[in-house]
Specification:
globular, D-Amino Acid Oxidase, Chain A, domain 2, eight-stranded mixed β-sheet, binds flavin-adenine dinucleotide, about 375 residues, alpha/beta, FAD/NAD(P)-binding domain
């Protein structure tokens, strides 16, 4: 039996961010993933980040999001310095549009939230479109420009986190499946894997949509229903699109090499992560509606991923009540990439006995479902 202080189950953006934050505090965790690291939802995502603002506390989710936005700047610079990997963090700006009259209400409500949070934005007139984003559908009814909207290349960010963790000496165990948590009374005593048992001081479950299944085996009821999301990747000229374009839950995210992601669906399809013809058709139609000239662009690829759900609009962050050494960090739904650095710092604080940095009562794994909140930045 191998022994380690903190074992993190799941090597997606959440597990790797926790391991990285722990390593910065001198705690070298073990991270286990049944696949290569970062191949789950974290790879499949679009990498959209909300605008940077000073950390605000108007609601628990806003606090977590704004803390993360601040940390993204720091972590991106830090990761580049430590391991020489560019995670693609770029402040490209964004345009939020309404194409139909029925979409105006939601867009204006979102703008009201941005104002309260101090997020910079301005309304664009149709005469501005060609100057700001020449390929945007000129028939858009309403558009707001958000100069501070940002993005990461999530596969690059995952590579950077993995390299930094390795650099620190974190023990990385890819291609190792966790079968179950072994328990005695109110403690997890070991992690049973297909490579043998690992004893542990503390365990962090960050296994995305699969967390609920693992925890159920240990009699912890924590629903993490998979929320399937599909993306279509276009390839155009590098200068085709400059800004992230968002229309409700749909978006175009341009990369600087000319790739453009059109996302994303939201489906309850169990653990089926296969892309479907129907979704690809729907997403391409939506892409043409936002930027008609995309109809002539190449479609390079499409894929699907399973976002980890929760019982409401918040992730689960904190100790499980059932075991004194079990920490849970999952259920981030559509926002796991944007919330990952703050989640990492928070859980590392918790695991090391430091002040968490945020009021955790709102994220308790055993909470009753809270009211829906904060749709200012869905991603
Ligand atoms: C199409 C799409 C677009 C998205 N766009 C954005 C976006 O723009 N911005 C944003 O913030 N978020 C976005 N998201 C959401 C975001 O990707 C997720 O919230 C986030 O990746 C969740 O990270 P995770 O580490 O919890 O899960 P995952 O990345 O799924 O990682 C969980 C890991 O646990 C491992 N695992 C599971 N079971 C076991 C086991 N028994 N043993 C060992 N390992 C196990 C898996 O192999 C996996 O690697 C998007 C998601 C999708 C699908």
């Amino acid at each position: 039996m191998k022994s380690t202080d903190v074992v993190v189950v799941g090597g997606g953006v959440i597990g790797l961010s926790i391991a990285y934050a722990l390593a910065k505090r001198g705690v070298l965790a073990t991270v286990i993933d049944r696949d290569a690291f970062g191949k789950g939802a974290s790879w499949a995502g679009a990498g959209m980040l909300p605008p940077f603002v000073v950390r605000t506390t108007s609601s628990p989710m806003v606090e977590l999001r704004s803390w993360s936005a601040v940390l993204y700047r720091e972590w991106s610079a830090e990761l580049r310095e430590r391991v020489g990997v560019d995670n693609g963090y770029r402040v490209t700006g964004g345009i939020d549009v309404a194409l139909e009259p029925g979409e105006l209400g939601d867009l204006k409500t979102a703008a009201g939230r941005w104002r309260v949070e101090g997020i910079r934005f301005e309304q664009l007139q149709p005469s501005d479109f060609t100057r700001v984003e020449p390929e945007l559908n000129p028939k858009a009814l309403y558009a707001f420009y958000l100069p501070d909207r940002a993005q990461i290349r999530n596969p690059w960010h995952l590579r950077a986190l993995e390299a930094a963790a390795q650099n620190f000496g974190v023990k990385l165990m890819p291609h190792t499946s966790v079968r179950r948590l072994k328990t005695v009374d109110n403690r997890i005593t070991a992690i049973e894997t297909d490579g043998g048992d690992i004893s542990c001081g503390q365990v962090v479950i960050a296994a995305g949509a699969w967390s609920g299944g693992l925890l159920a085996e240990a009699q912890v009821a924590l629903p993490t229903p998979p929320l399937k999301g599909q993306i279509v990747l276009f390839r155009a000229e590098a200068t085709f699109l400059r800004h992230i374009i968002e229309r409700g839950k749909l978006y175009l995210v341009p990369r600087e090499d000319g790739r453009i992601l059109m996302g994303a669906t939201e489906e309850n399809a169990g653990f089926d992560s296969r892309p479907t013809a129907e979704a690809v058709h729907e997403l391409t139609q939506q892409a043409y509606a936002l930027c008609p000239a995309l109809a002539r662009a190449e479609i390079e690829k499409y894929w699907a991923g399973l976002r980890p759900g929760s019982i409401d609009t918040r992730p689960y962050l904190g100790f499980a009540q059932e075991y004194e050494n079990l920490i849970i960090a999952t259920g981030h739904k559509r926002a796991g990439l944007q919330l990952a650095p703050a989640t990492g710092e928070l859980i590392a604080n918790l695991a090391t006995g430091a002040v968490p940095g945020i009021d955790l009562s709102n994220f308790r794994p055993d909470r009753a479902p809270g009211p829906a909140e904060d749709v200012a930045f869905r991603s």
